[in-house]
Amino acid sequence: MKSVYDIQQFLKNYGTFIYTGDRQADLMLMQDELKELFLANILERKDLQIATLILKKELSEIRK
Q1: Sign of CA dihedral 37, 13, 18, 8
Q2: Burial level of 48, CB count in 10 A (0-12/13-18/19+)?
Q3: Among residues 21, 25, 1, which one has the least CA distance to residue 13?
Q4: How far is C-alpha 57 from the chain's CA centre?
């Protein structure tokens, strides 16, 4: 995963479509879904860490 778009596509593979109209809320929901996939042993720790960094970077850019 290299971008938020990649994360969205990954989540779609597992039936998760996130769009609330609020970008910040969308990013936080994506983070929650990724954590759930990790806890279900679907997502590896390395991939979770990479995705988390991408989402945190995007959130910090929005908050500026």
Answers
A1: positive
A2: middle
A3: 1
A4: 11
Domains of the chain, CATH where assigned: 4-63 (1.10.287.760)
Q: Which two tokens stand for residue 31?
A: 């983070």
What is the number of alpha carbons within 13 Å of residue 51 lying toward its C-beta?
A: 25
User: Nearest 5°: CA angle at 45, between 9 and 24?
Assistant: 50
Residue carrying structure tokens 């679907």: 42
State pLDDT tens for residues 5-52: 999 999 999 999 999 999 999 999 999 999 999 999 999 999 999 999
Amino acid identity, residue 43? L
In angstroms, how far is CA 62 from the centroid of its own chain? 15
**Six token digits for residue 25:** 């809320």
